[in-house]
Write a structure and sequence with these properties.
This protein is an all-alpha fold. It has a single domain (4-155), classed as Ferritin (Up-down Bundle). It has 5 helices and no strands. Helix 1 (4-30) packs parallel to helix 3. The longest helix is centred in the middle third of the chain and has 29 residues, at 93-121. The termini are far apart.
């Protein structure tokens, strides 16, 4: 089963997790002592553990980790953070909202990864091992927590500006 396309797919998700973890660290630091920071730190711990699951799978399949993809993800995260800084200060309402929205999108992608691997594992013993259903449930729970906070952040992010 281990093939080039699977290696690309898994490494793309591994690289995306690098960016997500960096974004969560950034949100936690910028909003220290707030519910946003608390959620970001919780998610950082949870997604770090899931990332280890993915790293173990890549290793078990004999696929190498793609350094260029990791570097690309890191650079992409830095560019995203710069974009957020240009749009709004690090502690600003739009900054929080857009950071949470990026996390929502990333978590949705991660859930999709676990779902497809669960499907593939049914006919490919090499992919068996992780509890993909539990990983999907965890992703769905993370998605709900971030989405709740994102929606709560929307009014402040888009309140009318006095002129």
């Amino acid at each position: 089963m281990a093939n080039t396309h699977l290696g690309i797919y898994l490494n793309d998700h591994l690289a995306a997790s690098t960016g997500a973890l960096d974004l969560m660290k950034h949100l936690a630091e910028a909003h220290d002592g707030t519910p946003v920071a608390k959620l970001a730190l919780q998610l950082h711990a949870e997604i770090s553990a899931e990332r280890q699951e993915l790293e173990q799978l890549i290793k078990r399949l004999g696929l190498g980790e793609s350094i260029p993809r990791q570097v690309g993800a890191w650079l992409g995260t830095k560019i995203s953070q710069l974009k957020l800084q240009i749009d709004d200060k690090a502690t600003g309402a739009l900054h929080v909202f857009e950071g949470l929205e990026a996390l929502t999108i990333g978590i949705h992608g991660k859930a999709a990864l676990w779902r497809v691997l669960g499907e593939l594992a049914e006919s490919n013993p090499e992919l068996r091992g992780p509890d993909y259903q539990q990983l999907v449930r965890a992703s769905d729970d993370q998605q709900q927590r971030v989405e709740t906070m994102r929606l709560a952040a929307a009014p402040a992010a888009f309140e009318p500006i006095d002129q």
